Amino acid sequence: MEIQQQKLPETTLVQQNQLLVGIDLGTCRTAVMSNRGAQIMTRSVVGYPKDVISERMVGEGPIIGQDAVSKRNFLDLCYPLADGVIREASERDYDAAFELIKHVVSLAKQGAEASSVCGIIGVPARASIMNKELLLDIAKEVMNVALVVSEPFMVAYKLGKLSNCIVIDIGAGTVDICGMKGTVPAADDQVTFLKGGDFIDERLESAIARRYPGVQITESVACSIKEKHAFVGQPDKPVIAKLRMDGKPVEFDVTEDVRAVCESIVPDIVEQLDTLVMKFDPEDQEEALKNIILAGGGSRIKGLSQMIVNQMSDYGEVVVTCVDDPDYIGSAGALKLATEIPTDKWPEIGVMFGAD
After folding, report:
1. I need a labelling partner for 165 at 20 to 30 A (CA). Which of 188, 237, 263, 317 fits?
2. Rounded to an integer, what is the distance from CA 69 to the centroid of its chain?
3. Does residue 54 share a domain with residue 42?
4. Boundaries of domain holding 291
């Protein structure tokens, strides 16, 4: 978890001592920014002691974020978010999601109480009304006003790219693609599919296990390899991973496996871009194709932007750019939205509670 200070412009829309928070709620990591200057990144995991001995070692819990990962031998870890939304598998998932949101809002307060807490939370572009309402039910416990909006819309708002633009947000659980046409995006202008970072991790783990029978590989190890080496197209150099075979460290060439699993998400991205481009007015399509933005952790895959350009060459000039800060741009967009739009206007943007 990391907290940094950031100077934000003053605004007359913020009441005295009111806390505004922008939350990018992710399957793997959750990013939060506030009008008090907090900038927080934490793992989206909650840990509970396994037994009385574990409890004596780490306390009653719950333990949240990287601290939970570090103490995982003592804990039952709960990842309350799946595919970018709250799991509905058990009461523990709901409780863990509450603990996670309460934790990040508490950190955003920076030790000072607030007269009210108003938050904007990002969710996958095509999250269901049921999932949004479930999230709002949890948010009610720690916020006075909360709004859920699509994650790619938060990116577009931060960049000021609100017209003739397409945002591709590649997260751990989902890939969200949104066409911006000058208004709050409609459902038909957005698409979500479940081939994000977790999908790549699972495929990479299986591919390495098939290529090198007997190698000790887990999804967590595969994720580490992906985060360090992910690429599509031609590699700059071979990808060599130090793994264990029969308990002994051995170096393995996993170049082709990394390339294949990363490229496996490209056809779906291009297919959905084809569909969304056709929904722009014909006179706006050329401009939209020159304003395709890659965001989310997946935007770090080397060569991805150029591969998308190459595969869409039939459309004419296509320009794909990557955001400068994929970790925080979603939460920064949510905070900007919360700061600039009065809360009484929030119902025009998305599903919320706490409106007067």
Report:
1. 263
2. 19
3. yes
4. 157-195+265-322
User: From CA 119, how far away is CA 108, in angstroms rounded?
Assistant: 11
Encoded amino acid at 319, one letter: V
Question: From edge to edge, which strands make up the β-sheet containing 215-216?
Answer: 215-216, 240-245, 248-253
pLDDT in tens, the chain (356 residues): 444 444 444 444 456 689 999 999 999 999 999 999 999 999 999 999 999 999 999 998 899 999 999 999 999 999 998 877 787 767 888 899 999 999 999 999 988 888 899 999 998 887 888 888 889 999 999 999 999 999 999 999 999 999 999 999 999 999 999 999 999 999 899 999 999 999 999 999 999 999 999 999 999 999 999 999 999 999 999 999 999 998 899 999 999 999 999 999 999 999 999 999 999 999 999 999 999 999 999 999 999 999 999 999 999 999 999 999 999 999 999 999 999 999 999 999 988 987 65
Closest CA to 125 of 182, 181, 194: 194
CA 32, 36, 37, 39: dihedral to nearest 10 degrees?
-20
**End-of-domain residue from the set 241, 263, 285:** 263
CB 149 within 8 A of CB 124: no
Q: How many domains does the chain have?
A: 3
Residue 165's CB: how many other CB atoms inside 10 A? 23
Q: Are residues 274 and 256 in the same domain?
A: no
**CA gap 265, 167 in Å, rounded:** 16
Instruction: Output the CA–CA distances (angstroms, integers) from residue 339 to 33, 107, 127, 332, 346, in the order listed.
Output: 11, 19, 24, 10, 11
Distance from C-alpha of 356 to C-alpha of 222, rounded to nearest angstrom? 48
Q: Quickly list H helices, the chain.
A: 52-58, 66-70, 91-109, 129-139, 151-159, 197-211, 219-229, 255-263, 266-277, 282-289, 304-311, 329-340
Calpha distance 226→123 (Å, rounded): 24
- pTM score, two decimals? 0.91
